[in-house]
Structure formats: structure tokens, C-alpha cells
Design a protein that fits this description.
nine-stranded mixed sheet, 28% strand, 8 helices, alpha+beta, BCAT_family, single chain, branched-chain amino acid biosynthesis, aminotransferase, amino-acid biosynthesis, binds 2-OXO-4-methylpentanoic acid, branched-chain-amino-acid transaminase activity, binds pyridoxal-5'-phosphate
């Protein structure tokens, strides 16, 4: 299906009679953490080969019933997205560049042989959920409602081919800082034993399998006292972290980030690099070898390294650790200043000059 659907879907709304009380919700929002609490409702839309997208619903949040032979449970035909809703000072609720997430989900769908959800339906699903669960968008500074759209093969069939029945869901989770301890430099473990993706693989798609294969290296990172893992490609070029892109800042003001067809094209990265370009920084998207990174830090050519993604926003990298070495990363001002500019836009504290925000509650 191409992105030409325009007729809005008509959602059936079933209210959750066991919805959390305002007091229970307030208690959760006091300390939301990341990804552990969920709102009262969820959205789902069915797809079938013959019927296309149909039966759009808003229903109480709860378990999904699946046939044990559902293809996703066997062959991992699944994709997802991550996007946030932000509360502005006037109470309104906005999201950030949803067209980009919709387009990336369509690209992931093509790679995983899933149907493409039209952008209009993607955006409508966000609006429908906010219409019932808008009170879950936190008011506290730097908190947001993390929205998790996902799609999977639900057809009960053990042959290996694209499923003819698919489900799209949207759930939401109030979110504070992704890393415990808030915004402080994180430590990164260099994975030498594992790769995240390969040429022609699924690295550029947001599919669960990429994250499943990152768990063992991520555990290795934790064993070495590190917060995240960084992956290299087969030529020892830097790819990305388990769930974030990497950006290098050079002494002369250049900003360099890995270009590769096996990493996820981050929307946070794209936005932050745009803001940096607006400030006059030259941005280079090209391969960056591990050697360039380590030499650059050692010589002082690289003056800052940071990670970025929807969940983590912009987070400075404080240390790169690997077998037999530990490079302390230089600390600078740019990452935090770009983080501030980006979040000011997202929370409506600064002009949205690129037209990145979309109001969801009106
Ligand atoms: N890379 C990976 C592997 C990710 O999971 C994410 C998070 O979504 C990103 C990069 C950053 O992407 P975005 O900024 O669109 O959230
Ligand atoms: C996101 O930032 O949206 C992600 O999907 C990353 C994940 C590690 C939570």
C-alpha cells in the first residue's frame, strides 16, 4: 500500500472501566521511570491481504490474545517506532516530526515484508490515543509521554512467508530520564565480539530482532560497568549504540556522524544536526573509523562525543571502554546546548522555526 490514503478511519472507542484514578495516575507520574507504566488505553488496527487496514479501535490497555502459531512468535516479523508527546505550558499536547516516524515505519515495513501504514493513519492513531489518555502526558519539566507504535505478523502459519494478517498497535508510557541519574555523561563499551547489523541486513529497520541481538552485547557492556554498547561494522567503522546514534564534535566546529546503510536513521540526530547547521556548524555524514575516534580524542581534535535518540534525547558520552583500554572523552558545552535547544522547541519554550511540532489534542 502506498501513502495515498486520505479518508480518515472511524475508530470504535471502548472506554477502560478500570482506568487509573487521578490519584493513582499522579503517583505514577511522580516518578515515571522509563517504559514500566502504561496508560489506560491502546489503539489497534487490523490488516489483511484482502481487506487492507480495517477495524480501527481504541480499547482498554491489556493483554493481546495470539494464536501460538502466530508468525511473529516464530520468525520475528515485527517493527516498531518511538515518538513522544510533550505538554506545553498552556496545557496543549504536541508531538515531534511524526511524519518522519511514519515514513521510517513504512521503510521498516518494506524491509520486513509488512504492509505500510499510511502516514495519515499513523498520525490519527496518535491523536486517538491522546484523545482518551491525554491526562497521562506529564506536566513536569523534561517528562513526556513515550508513544510506542508497533506492528507484527499475527497470521497463524508456520510456513516462512510474509503474513497475510497483521496487527498495528499503539501503546503509551509516561517517561522520565532514560538513563538512571538523569543527564550525565554515559559510559560506552566497545563490542568486539558481536555485530549489530551487516551489509544488506536489517540494521536500518526498526525491528525487534535488532534489539534482541543487542541484548547479549549490552549485557557484556554492563559486566564492564558501562551504560551502553557501541557497534562497529566489518571494516571497523563506528555504527551506533544499541538504541542511539553517535555524533562527534571537532575542534574546528565540524560535526561528524556515521553514514551507513546499516544504522537506524535517527530523527533526533537529524534534528540536532539541523539545529547545529543553523548555528553555522558544518555537518559531515560519512564513515568514521574507530581509529579516527580514538586518535581524535587522543590528539584533542575531537572535543565532544554524544549519543542521541528519542528515549535518551541528547546525552554526552563520558568514556569509551574496550578490551584493554579506557578512553576518557572530552567534555564540552555543545551537546547540552543542543539538547536544550531541541527540548525548548519540543516543550514549546522556543520558536518552532522548522515546523516540527504537531498539536495532537486539537
Ligand atoms: N539507533 C537505534 C538503534 C535506536 O533504537 C534509536 C532510537 O529510536 C535511534 C538510533 C535514534 O532514533 P530516533 O532519534 O529517531 O529516536
Ligand atoms: C527510542 O529512543 O525510541 C528507542 O526506541 C530506543 C530504545 C532503546 C528505547
Amino acid at each position: 500500500m502506498t501513502d495515498t490514503a486520505t479518508a480518515p478511519l472511524t475508530f470504535t472507542v471502548t472506554r477502560n472501566l478500570a482506568a487509573k484514578s487521578p490519584a493513582q495516575r499522579a503517583e505514577i507520574l511522580e516518578n515515571p521511570g522509563f517504559g514500566t507504566n502504561f496508560t489506560d488505553h491502546m489503539v489497534d488496527i487490523c490488516w489483511s491481504e484482502h481487506g487492507g487496514w480495517h477495524r480501527p479501535r481504541v480499547q482498554p490497555y491489556g493483554p493481546i490474545s495470539l494464536d501460538p502459531a502466530a508468525a511473529v512468535l516464530h520468525y520475528a516479523q515485527e517493527i516498531f517506532e518511538g515518538i513522544k508527546a510533550y505538554r506545553h505550558a498552556d496545557g496543549s499536547v504536541h508531538t515531534f516530526r511524526p511524519d518522519r516516524n511514519a515514513a521510517r515505519m513504512q521503510a521498516s515495513a518494506r524491509r520486513l515484508a509488512l504492509p505500510e501504514l499510511p502516514t495519515e493513519y499513523f498520525v490519527q492513531s496518535l491523536r486517538e490515543l491522546i484523545a482518551v489518555d491525554g491526562d497521562w502526558v506529564p506536566t513536569a519539566a523534561d517528562q513526556s509521554l513515550y508513544l510506542r507504535p508497533f506492528m507484527f505478523a499475527k497470521e497463524a502459519f508456520l510456513g516462512v512467508r510474509p503474513a497475510k494478517k497483521v496487527a498495528y498497535y499503539l501503546i503509551a508510557s509516561p517517561a522520565g530520564a532514560y538513563f538512571k541519574g538523569g543527564v550525565k555523561p554515559v559510559s560506552i563499551w566497545l563490542s568486539e565480539n558481536y555485530a549489530r547489523a551487516g551489509k544488506g541486513g536489517t540494521g536500518a529497520a526498526k525491528t525487534g530482532g535488532n534489539y534482541a541481538s543487542s541484548l547479549r552485547p549490552q549485557a557484556e557492556a554492563a559486566e564492564h560497568g558501562c551504560d551502553q554498547v557501541v557497534f562497529l561494522d566489518q571494516d571497523r567503522n563506528v555504527e551506533e549504540l544499541g538504541g542511539m546514534n553517535v555524533v562527534f564534535v571537532y575542534k574546528d566546529g565540524r560535526i561528524v556522524t556515521p553514514a551507513s546503510d546499516s544504522i537506524l536513521e535517527g530523527i533526533t540526530r537529524d534534528s540536532v544536526l539541523q539545529l547545529a547547521e543553523d548555528r553555522g556548524h558544518v555537518v559531515e555524514r560519512r564513515p568514521v573509523s574507530l581509529q579516527e575516534w580514538r586518535d581524535g580524542v587522543a590528539s584533542g581534535d575531537i572535543v565532544e562525543v554524544f549519543a542521541c535518540g528519542t528515549a535518551a534525547v541528547v546525552t554526552p558520552i563520558g568514556t569509551l571502554k574496550g578490551e584493554g583500554f579506557e578512553d576518557v572523552q572530552p567534555s564540552g558545552e555543545l551537546a547540552l546546548s543542543l539538547r536544550e535547544e531541541l527540548t525548548d522547541i519540543q516543550y514549546g519554550r522556543r520558536e518552532d522555526r522548522h515546523g516540527w511540532l504537531l498539536r495532537l489534542d486539537a
